[in-house]
User: Fold this.
Amino acid sequence: MKQNMLYLIIGALVVVIIALGIYVYREQTRPKGVELKIDDKGISIQQN
Assistant:
């Protein structure tokens, strides 16, 4: 029973590390500048 719990904790940590890596990668590769979005809600401008 204790060994199964250890595997669960290790698996959860691996998932968290992978998710954090994906988040950091997306933030680093996001283009810098101004983002202009036009949709059914109207026009929105964001500075990155």
